[in-house]
């Protein structure tokens, strides 16, 4: 289990627990459940990399305690 | 009894003797070190923030599938403790052995306090001199920790370790005590007392903690916070205790014991906090803005989303790394499990290596020793001390020597005997190489043709090299002969025409006896397909037979030589005559003779005497020539029977020469400027023509006079003539020819010498000259072109001079034209024979003039470089160079130069365009007009200049 912090810099900051084998899509659903936004409106970024839904966190090398940028589309 | 203080550990010797004994028993020192170590560890543990906690999972799942997480103080976690134990012995560097000044008690003293000040007790003790700078203390520490690692760990990890640590100490001490009776323990009762005290205090703290825990937590975070606060309280209280310990009252009396209670109370409350299932593992984020779900909540959510529950066992940071069967540390993070192979211990390796080396050396030494044992050294004495013994020994030696000699001699004799036997009976012993005879050679193959061995010649043959593994028979060869054969074959191959394939009908088909050789179609490939026919014979009985057979065959062949299968009704044999018959003559073809030969004959020197001899026979040169030729022929050709044919040929040659002279004359006639020269040439021409047909001269040389010619004759030489430059032909050529052939011709010579005027005339030719003179004038003035009728050559000449045709002189002799001059079959390949293959390959196309492109043998390009300037004019070499040069240097010619060149070009152009039938100024037309007007064959040039000019201009 890893914990990831997602922050849009507009006041929403969530910490999500997930497995490294989860996909970004799953993570988005978890975030959506925690924040109340629709998961398909969420965009996750790290610098200029937009994470794609069907790819696993471990494949993106997202580790415990990492911060992801939360955007909305 | 060991007393525990922070600064000093003293040891009470049991007896006075020991106290005064300067010897220090290491066991006692070890005891002191053990105490000091434990104390140091406690101190270190106390320094850790008790709030710091790590989660340890219990590996037990409850009914919901959640495992229990245990939150343990960091200071009590195994990881921390092991780490601490690894480093704690470094602290021993600060300790030194000492003896109390008064009581002579052994103690170890920490020289520097934790605050960095000097230990005040230092003045009260005498330091013990130590050879290795008290390194032994550290070693003792390490030893202690190693021996009791498990016990110490478990004790420190215990939730209520305070009591038990002392207990361990106690146990250890008692054990030591048992082993060392000289170490006395003061009393265990005091220790018991202390323990009771500790227990009481701890119980109190426990109660307090329990009450804390029993408090109702309204929020998760709150609970942890309060818990932490409680911990902090504990810590504060602890630290205050520690302060007391660290600053002990400087006890003047060393035996005074500090109260043990504070040291024990320094342990933080051990109560394990077992986290509830719902508790979050994450502490509150610092920003406080995090929206965090617990694992359970997350799992619920995940179940709803259809995801598998979280893997909660991944938090291994606080866990002791698992060890697998090999003792390798297992490390697991979220990516999986990893085995960390420990690095090789270099020191161990080195030691092993050293040991091995030592063993090796020992072994070698042993071997050498063994060897040397059997040999007697120089210095070593012999066994025989007695002189008699020595003598006996040496005698024996000598005897042995003599015996050996005898035996050798005998063997030799036997050998000789055997050898002599073999001479008489060679077949007795085959092993002797002296008797390797013909018989042994029987059946051996010789790798050469039998013919190559001449009769009675001695040829040394050697065994041919062949593959060791190949099971071929042995073959005898001579290296030189092999080389010869190869060379012969190469020459044969070279003789073949590489361009010719297939069946050659005309190839030699008969052997030396004239018999037809039977050939296969494409027989030349037989060798390549079937392999080279082995040209060998074997030594043996068949040799003679073969020879004989061959001889017989040869004889038969010789008999049959020249005999052909022909019909019987062949014409009967005739006597061969020395001369050819007429039919044979007709059939006979002689190869054409080259012209060169004749040319040589026509040299002036050859002609001179002849002309003298033939003077009487008129001026008919042709005749003379023919005579001369006949004469020469008789010299040259032996076979008089073919005289006629010969003559015919010679006549042809002669005609050739004559035609050449004719041509030259024509040229001359066009070129010569003076009337007389023209006349002379005309003369020559006439003469030449007379050779063919004398009767024709008159009709041929009819001269037409016309007015213009007549008129112009009176004018004399036109001053502008020759200025235009297109009339200067190479007269030198002409001269050469004339000199060569017509030197003896005196009249001509005369005429030529008088060139320029035509007043002086040879009286012999006067009539003709007079007749012709008019025409000559015409030629002189309008000279270039009227001769067009005389032949194609003349016409071409005209065209050239007028620029209708381009001059050919730009065509340089090309490769194609010179092809016949090049050597066809010349090569120096033979010289390079045996040279490096690589070198040859490299030089295949670069070896200078002898090599050609093999692929393009017939390709002879006619390369013509033409340069054209900006205006499209063709440039000659010089101009082209100039042009390129200007271009290259980026600097054109000067203005004047350009103008000059332009002018020249213009003039050239004008000259090309100039009318061929008129002067550049058109005077001729003017003249004709005038004459037409006046109806007179003349015009009057006398009179005033102006009148003349006006008269002409009028007609314009």
TrEMBL record, chain A:
The keyword Secreted does not apply. This is Ubiquitin-like protein 5. It comes from Pseudolycoriella hygida. Coiled coil: none annotated. Residues 2-73 form the Ubiquitin-like domain. Keywords: Ubl conjugation pathway. InterPro entries: Hub1/Ubl5, Ubiquitin-like_dom, Ubiquitin-like_domsf. The gene is ubl. PROSITE patterns: UBIQUITIN_2. The keyword Nucleotidyltransferase does not apply. Signal peptide: none annotated.
TrEMBL record, chain B:
It is found in: Nucleus. Residues 205-223 have a biased composition (Basic residues). InterPro entries: DUF3456, HIND, SNU66/SART1. Residues 189-204, 230-239 have a biased composition (Basic and acidic residues). It comes from the Eukaryota. GO terms for biological process: maturation of 5S rRNA; mRNA cis splicing, via spliceosome. Keywords: mRNA processing, mRNA splicing, Nucleus. Residues 30-161 form the DUF3456 domain. Residues 167-289, 306-327, 416-440 are annotated as: Disordered. The keyword Nucleus applies. The keyword Oxidoreductase does not apply. GO terms for cellular component: U4/U6 x U5 tri-snRNP complex. Residues 247-272 have a biased composition (Pro residues). It holds the Pfam family SART-1. PANTHER family: SQUAMOUS CELL CARCINOMA ANTIGEN RECOGNISED BY CYTOTOXIC T LYMPHOCYTES (PTHR14152), U4_U6.U5 TRI-SNRNP-ASSOCIATED PROTEIN 1 (PTHR14152:SF5). Belongs to the SNU66/SART1 family. This is U4/U6.U5 tri-snRNP-associated protein 1.
């Amino acid at each position: 289990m890893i914990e990831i912090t997602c922050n849009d810099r507009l006041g929403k900051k969530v910490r999500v627990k997930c497995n490294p084998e989860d996909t970004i899509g799953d993570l988005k659903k978890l975030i959506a459940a925690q924040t109340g936004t629709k998961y398909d409106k969420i965009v996750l970024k790290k610098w200029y990399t937009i994470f794609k839904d069907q790819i696993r966190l471990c494949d993106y090398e997202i580790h415990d305690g990492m911060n992801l940028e939360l955007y909305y589309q | 009894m060991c007393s525990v203080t922070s600064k000093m550990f003293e040891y009470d010797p049991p007896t006075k003797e020991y106290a005064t004994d300067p010897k220090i028993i290491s066991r006692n020192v070890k005891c002191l070190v053990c105490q000091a170590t434990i104390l140091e560890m406690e101190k270190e543990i106390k320094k850790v923030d008790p709030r710091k906690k790590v989660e340890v999972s219990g590996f037990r799942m409850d009914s919901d599938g959640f495992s229990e997480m245990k939150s343990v103080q960091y200071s009590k976690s195994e990881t921390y403790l092991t780490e601490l134990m690894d480093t704690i012995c470094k602290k021993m560097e600060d300790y030194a052995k000492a003896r109390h000044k008064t009581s002579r008690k052994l103690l170890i003293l920490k020289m520097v306090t934790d605050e960095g000040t000097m230990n005040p007790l230092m003045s009260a003790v005498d330091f013990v001199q130590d050879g290795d700078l008290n390194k032994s203390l550290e070693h003792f520490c390490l030893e202690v920790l190693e021996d009791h690692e498990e016990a110490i760990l478990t004790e420190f990890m215990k939730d209520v370790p305070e009591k038990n640590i002392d207990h361990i100490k106690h146990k250890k001490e008692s054990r030591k005590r048992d082993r060392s009776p000289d170490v006395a323990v003061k009393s265990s009762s005091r220790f018991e007392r202390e323990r009771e005290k500790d227990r009481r205090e701890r119980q109190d703290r426990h109660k307090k903690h329990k009450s804390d825990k029993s408090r109702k937590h309204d929020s998760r975070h709150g609970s942890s916070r309060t818990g932490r606060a409680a911990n902090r309280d504990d810590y504060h209280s602890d630290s205050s205790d520690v302060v007391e310990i660290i600053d002990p009252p400087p006890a003047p009396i060393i035996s005074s014991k500090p109260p043990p209670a504070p040291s024990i109370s320094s342990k933080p409350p051990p109560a394990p906090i077992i986290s509830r299932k719902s508790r979050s593992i994450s502490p509150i984020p610092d920003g406080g803005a995090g929206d965090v779900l617990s694992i359970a909540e997350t799992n619920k959510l995940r179940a709803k989303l259809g995801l598998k529950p979280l893997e909660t066992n991944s938090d291994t940071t606080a866990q002791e790394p698992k060890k697998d069967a090999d003792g390798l540390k297992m490390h697991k993070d979220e990516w999986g499990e990893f085995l960390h192979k420990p690095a090789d211990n270099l020191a161990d390796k080195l030691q092993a290596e050293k040991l091995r080396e030592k063993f090796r050396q020992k072994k070698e030494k042993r071997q050498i020793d063994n060897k040397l044992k059997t040999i007697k050294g120089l210095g070593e004495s012999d066994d025989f001390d007695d002189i008699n013994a020595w003598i006996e020994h040496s005698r024996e030696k000598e005897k042995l020597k003599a015996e050996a000699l005898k035996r050798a001699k005998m063997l030799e004799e036997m050998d000789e005997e055997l050898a002599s036997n073999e001479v008489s009976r060679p077949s007795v012993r085959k092993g002797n190489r002296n008797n390797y005879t013909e018989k042994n050679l029987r059946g051996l193959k010789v790798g050469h043709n039998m013919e190559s061995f001449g009769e009675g010649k001695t040829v040394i043959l050697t065994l041919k090299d062949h593959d060791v593994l190949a099971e071929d028979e042995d073959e005898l060869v001579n290296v030189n002969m092999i080389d010869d054969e190869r060379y012969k074959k190469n020459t044969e191959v070279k003789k073949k025409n590489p361009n010719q394939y297939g069946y050659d009908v005309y190839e030699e088909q008969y052997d030396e006896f004239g018999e037809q050789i039977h050939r296969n179609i494409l027989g030349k490939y037989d060798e390549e397909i079937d392999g080279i026919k082995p040209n060998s014979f074997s030594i043996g009985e068949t040799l003679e037979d073969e020879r004989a057979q061959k001889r017989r065959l040869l004889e038969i062949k010789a008999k049959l030589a020249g005999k052909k299968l022909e019909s019987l009704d062949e014409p009967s044999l005739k006597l061969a005559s020395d001369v050819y018959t007429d039919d044979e003559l007709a059939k006979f073809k002689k190869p054409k003779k080259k012209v060169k030969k004749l040319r040589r004959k026509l040299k002036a020197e050859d002609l001179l005497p002849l002309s003298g001899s033939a003077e009487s026979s008129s001026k008919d040169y042709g005749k003379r020539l023919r005579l001369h030729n006949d004469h020469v022929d008789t010299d040259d050709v032996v076979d008089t029977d073919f005289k006629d044919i010969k003559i015919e040929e010679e006549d042809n040659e002669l005609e050739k020469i004559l035609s050449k002279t004719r041509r030259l004359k024509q040229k001359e006639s066009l070129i010569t400027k003076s009337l007389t020269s023209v006349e002379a040439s005309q003369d020559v021409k006439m003469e030449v023509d007379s050779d063919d047909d004398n009767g024709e001269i008159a009709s041929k040389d009819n001269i037409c006079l016309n007015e213009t010619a007549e008129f112009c004759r009176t004018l004399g030489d036109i001053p502008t003539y020759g200025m235009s430059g297109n009339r200067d032909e190479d007269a030198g050529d002409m001269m050469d020819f004339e000199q060569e052939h017509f030197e003896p011709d005196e009249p001509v010579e005369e005429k030529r010498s008088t060139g320029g005027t035509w007043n002086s005339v040879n009286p012999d030719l006067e009539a003709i000259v007079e007749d012709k003179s008019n025409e000559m004038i015409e030629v002189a003035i309008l000279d270039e072109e009227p001769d067009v009728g005389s032949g194609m050559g003349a016409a071409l000449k005209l065209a050239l001079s007028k620029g209708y045709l381009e001059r050919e002189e730009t065509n340089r002799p090309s490769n194609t034209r010179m092809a016949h001059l090049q050597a066809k079959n010349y090569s120096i390949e033979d010289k390079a024979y045996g040279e490096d293959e690589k070198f040859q390959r490299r030089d295949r196309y670069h070896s200078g003039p002898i090599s050609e492109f093999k692929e393009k043998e017939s390709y002879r390009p006619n390369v013509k470089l033409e340069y054209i300037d900006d205006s499209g004019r063709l440039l000659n070499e010089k101009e082209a160079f100039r042009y390129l040069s200007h271009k290259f240097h980026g600097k054109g010619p000067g203005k004047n130069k350009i103008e000059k060149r332009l002018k020249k070009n213009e003039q050239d152009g004008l000259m090309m365009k100039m009318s061929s039938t008129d002067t550049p100024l058109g005077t001729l037309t003017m003249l004709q007009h005038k004459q037409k007007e006046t109806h007179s064959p003349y015009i009057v040039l006398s009179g005033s200049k102006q009148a003349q000019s006006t008269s002409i201009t009028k007609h314009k």
